[in-house]
Amino acid sequence: MTAHKTAKASKYQARMPDERGHIRYSDQDHATWQTLVERQTAIIDGRVCQAYLDGLERLALPHDRIPQLAEVDRVLEAATGWRTAQVPALIPFDTFFELLASRRFPVATFIRAPEELDYLQEPDIFHEIFGHCPMLTNPDFAEFTATYGKLGLAATPKQRVYLARLYWLTVEFGLVDTPQGRRIYGGGIISSPKETFHALSEAPEHHPFDPVDALRTPYRIDILQPLYYVLDDLHTLHDLSRQDIMAMVEQAMTLGLFEPKFPPKAA
Fold first, then answer.
1. How many CB atoms are closer than 10 A to CB 16?
2. Whole-model pTM above 0.90?
C-alpha cells in the first residue's frame, strides 16, 4: 500500500455518496470487507500495539459490511478531532498534505477486487479504515500525523520525497516496543496478513528509530519490507512533532541515502 498518492490513473473508481451522504456498496464489496476484517482480526492479537486495539474497540467497526464514513468520524472527532475525507483512489500530494494538516484522513471509497485480496498498490477503504483509523484515536499518533501534513504542505518537491520516507517507516510500517514486547502500529502492516507475520519475524532487520536514518532509508512499495524502525514508545511520535523535522530533512539530504536493502524493481 502506498501512503502518498499521485494523480496517475487507477483502475478503481471511488463510490460516490448520495444526497444523504450514504455510500452504497455491492454485496460482493461487503463480503470482501468481511473476509479482510475477519482474516486480520484473527491474527493481530499479540502482534499489534494496545493503542491500536483500544482504537479498534472504540471504532466498533462492523464485520459484515463496509462502514459509512460518518460512523468512523463520530469516534475520531470525539477522540482526537480527526475526521475522514472521501477521496478518489489516487490524489495529488498537495491534497494529501492539506487534508492531513486539517486533521482529515483521506479514504478512497472503494474496496479491492477479490482477485487482489492479498495485495493492492492503491490504498482502499479497508487499508485506510481498518489499517489506520484505530491509531488516529491515539493523541500521540494523531498529533504527529497532523504535524506531518503541515510540514509537507510547506515543503519543496525534493523535501517531500524525503518526508515520504519518514511517513512510510512510521505511519505505514512502524513498530514499537511495549512492556508486552515488540508490537505493530503501522497501517501498512496491520492491513496485510503477510506483512503482519513478516514484520515481527527474524527475516527483516529491526533498527531503533532515528528520524534522520528513516529519512535516508529507501523503500519499495511492492515488496515485504526488509527493514523496520522500532519506537521506544508511541510518545516518541509526539516528541518528534515538537522538533524541527525540516532541519532533520536538510541533514538527511546532506548525508544522502543509505544503500537500498532490496533489488531494483524490474523494468
1. 10
2. yes
How many angstroms separate the CA atoms of 134 and 130, rounded? 7
Burial class (CB in 10 A: 0-12, 13-18, 19+), 189: buried
Known binding site for Fe cation: residues? 127, 132, 172
For residue range 176-197, list pLDDT tens digits in order.
999 999 999 999 999 999 999 9
Q: pLDDT, tens digit, for every residue of 64-112?
A: 999 999 999 999 999 999 999 999 878 999 999 999 999 999 999 999 9
- Which phi-psi region, left, alpha or beta, contains residue 60 (left: φ > 0; alpha: ψ -120 to 50)? left
CATH class of the 27-255 domain in this structure = mainly alpha
Q: What is the DSSP letter of 135?
A: G
Alpha carbon distance 89, 68 (integer Å):
17
Binding-site residues: 127, 132, 172
